Amino acid sequence: MAKCLYCGKNFKPKRHWQKFCSKECRLKHWDPISGRKMRKVLSEYLHLSQKEIEKLIKKAKEDYG
Questions:
Q1: How many CB atoms lie within 10 A of CB 4?
Q2: In the chain, helix, strand, coil percent, each to 5?
Q3: Measured between alpha carbons, how far is 11 from 56 in angstroms, rounded to an integer?
Q4: Going by C-beta distance under 8 Å and a sequence separation of 6 or more, which residues neighbour residue 63?
Q5: Using CA atoms, how far apart are residues 20 and 58, in angstroms rounded to an integer?
Q6: Cβ neighbours, 10 Å, residue 20
Q7: Which of 23, 26, 33, 48 is the most buried (most CB within 10 A)?
Q8: Gap between the Cα atoms of 27 and 39, Å rounded
Q9: Are 20 and 6 in contact (CB under 8 A)?
């Protein structure tokens, strides 16, 4: 048995590297654009100032069009 890293549910993995209990959980917590990185949640950005947020938005527009 393995434990889902995100919702905490116990599940039987089909592969040794499986970290998610379901497709829905994987899509909810994984960022397909950046590859193997987790999606950032809003709480990770709350400490940023307005200028830092604008800088991140500008960089994202440059990177992803």
A1: 18
A2: 40, 10, 50
A3: 37
A4: none
A5: 32
A6: 20
A7: 26
A8: 10
A9: yes
| Burial of residue 6 (number of CB atoms within 10 Å: 0-12, 13-18, 19+) | middle
Distance CA 27, CA 48 (A): 26
> Is there a contact between 33 and 64 (Cβ–Cβ < 8 Å)?
yes
Q: Per-residue pLDDT tens for 10-55?
A: 989 888 888 888 888 877 776 665 656 666 666 566 777 888 878 8
Residue among 31, 61, 33 nearest 53 (CA): 61
Q: Tell me how many domains the chain contains.
A: 1
